[in-house]
Amino acid sequence: MNFNKFLLFSTLLIILGGTSFILAQSRFIEVPSGVGTLNEVIAGDTTATGERIDPENTVYVLERYGFYLLTGTISNTGFPLKIWTAEGGGTKPIIQPGVGEGGVSSPPFRPRGDFHIKGAYVTAMDELGQTHTVMFRLSADDIKIIAEDCHLDYTGQSIFRLDNKNNSVYVLNSVVSNSGSMASPDNGRGIDDRGNDIDIVVFENSTFYNFTSRILRDGGGKINYARVVHNTVVNVGQMGISFGEIIELEFKNNLFVNTSFFGKRSTSAWSSFDVLPLREDLVNQGVEQKLTILNNNFYTAPELINAQPDSILASPIFNAVSDSLINAIGTKDNLLNEAITFTDQPALPVDLVVANWDFTITPRPEFDRGGGGPEYGGVQLPFNFAYPTSTASYTYSTNGQPLGSLKWFGMVVGVDENLDEVPVNFTLENNYPNPFNPSTVIKYSVPELSNVNLKIYNSLGQVVKTLVNTTQAAGSYSLQWDGTSDIGVKVSSGIYIYRLTTDKFSASKKMMLLK
Q1: 243 and 388 both lie in a single domain
Q2: Domain that holds residue 497
Q3: For the ranges 257-261, 267-271, 290-294, 481-485, the one whose mean pLDDT is highest
């Protein structure tokens, strides 16, 4: 199962050491900021007979600092849709439901084909402050949605609602916030599967804050594979993350602060982390459940626990079933329970704890939004979830980096060690994707304790980036290169060579960065 299948760019035939790469033609359509412009450009991109024009390779490009008021729900029935933000610095463009006659607006997106949105601020709150229940409503089988480098903010029920089966959801290098309200705290979800089976879920290097329910809600369907790595999760009321029945899970290097902070009744199964065993028919087919749970910090502020009524219990990290499974794999003691103070954090939701158990309280309190909203324009991140370098969490990840999203520290996800199997040979694998933009993953294996050096060179043989220069234990490793040099400068398009050198092994491979 491949992690994140990115698109290829430009039709070219390039010979790299005898290897031919055929790249797809990219067609970039610039969309001017304005009312209904995004709707009109996408809807009008057809031939005279109504057929889509090269949808597989078309990218709709938004302006930095742009404001896109939608005049209706954008849906892509039977074709892939890519909405990306122009490269360069500047504020993310805002995509917001516009209000028409009669004060009515429509939800933002209803994907019915693969969908990739990159670099945008998207809200389900319309220009009059009315919040739609869903931001992305996936309404076809077997489709994939990627939210990359986005801020997804404000929804009443869920960010992603999956009405159909075997969908995949990727949230990468993004911020997802403000889902749900205390008028209906059972809502307020990140992904809601509605009881449908999910193919893939990937949350990576992202931040989730202010959810009344949970960032993933299991409604009875199974998940084939989930990867939840290097995420910061703050202020989630009922639970934290609920996988339910899942075949394969990677859950590591995450920071969960104040999750399941409402507490629970004695009969409730609420917890910060929930996994269920596979059902009998899958077990009978020989399907095995594989859980990798490593190097995570779960912490809830005592002020929130103390605010819970006497009849309410503090929620555990794991419910009974999950706790049994975690004990079976032997990594429960690997967890941290460390207090974390962020650089600029939302106020502790003590009043939400009290109101959750007392519906006579009016008006209903809400999360500290930090003054955020689609109107705040120039400063689109009201909080800063960096934390002190003196904490154990700062170096506790499997690769020695901080737990949680690394975006708050200006870092990229580093070397990640596979502890499950010891390789028998030295290997250096092909990077993926290749060609790439903006980042690519490099994997390698060392069968014994080794001095490992992994560097990237330009076509002149000059060192561009040193990725690894240390002693490493036997294992399989992967890391991401984001196209920057050792001094943090974005490198130009071109051919690059990555070289792995140990005491007993040396290998090089070629890759291409295309912008």
Answers
A1: yes
A2: 427-513
A3: 257-261
pTM over 0.90: no
Question: What pairs with residue 162 in β-bridges?
Answer: 138
Q: How far apart are CA 25 and CA 12, in angstroms?
A: 8
Average pLDDT, the chain: 89
Strands 494-501 and 506-513: antiparallel
* 160 and 213 share one domain: yes
For residue 515, the one-letter residue type is K
- Is 368 inside a domain boundary? yes
| pLDDT for 419 | 44
For residue 333, which amino acid is it? D
Peptide bond into 349 cis (omega under 30): no
Please determine, for residue 215, whether its predicted confidence score (pLDDT) is greater than 70.
yes
Task: Compute the distance between CA of residue 122 and CA of residue 136 in angstroms, rounded to an integer.
Answer: 10
Domains of the chain: total = 2
HSE-up (13 A, CA, CB side) for residue 206: 24
| Domain stop point among 409, 443, 469 | 409
Q: Is 60 exceeded by the pLDDT of residue 5? A: no
495 within some domain: yes
**What are the φ and ψ backbone dihedral angles of 195, each rounded to 5 degrees?**
85, 5
Task: Provide the phi-psi class of 47: left if phi over 0, else alpha when psi is between -120 and 50, else beta.
Answer: beta
Task: Please indicate, yes or no, whether residues 503 and 401 belong to a single structural domain of this protein.
Answer: no
Q: H or E element: which one contains 304?
A: helix 302-306
205, 407 contact by CB (below 8 A): yes
Q: Is residue 216 part of a domain?
A: yes
Distance from C-alpha of 463 to C-alpha of 497, rounded to nearest angstrom: 9
Own/partner pairs, 457-465, CB within 8 angstroms, 24+ separation: 457/496, 457/497, 457/498, 457/499, 458/491, 458/494, 458/496, 458/497, 459/494, 459/495, 459/496, 459/497, 464/491, 464/496
What's residue 399's pLDDT? 82
Region 41-46 average pLDDT: 98
Given the structure tokens 């329970």, which residue do they identify? 337
313 DSSP β-pair partners = 264
Same domain membership, residue 214 and residue 289:
yes
Residue 67 domain-assigned (yes or no): no
pLDDT, tens digit, for every residue of 370-395?
Answer: 876 665 444 578 899 999 999 999 99
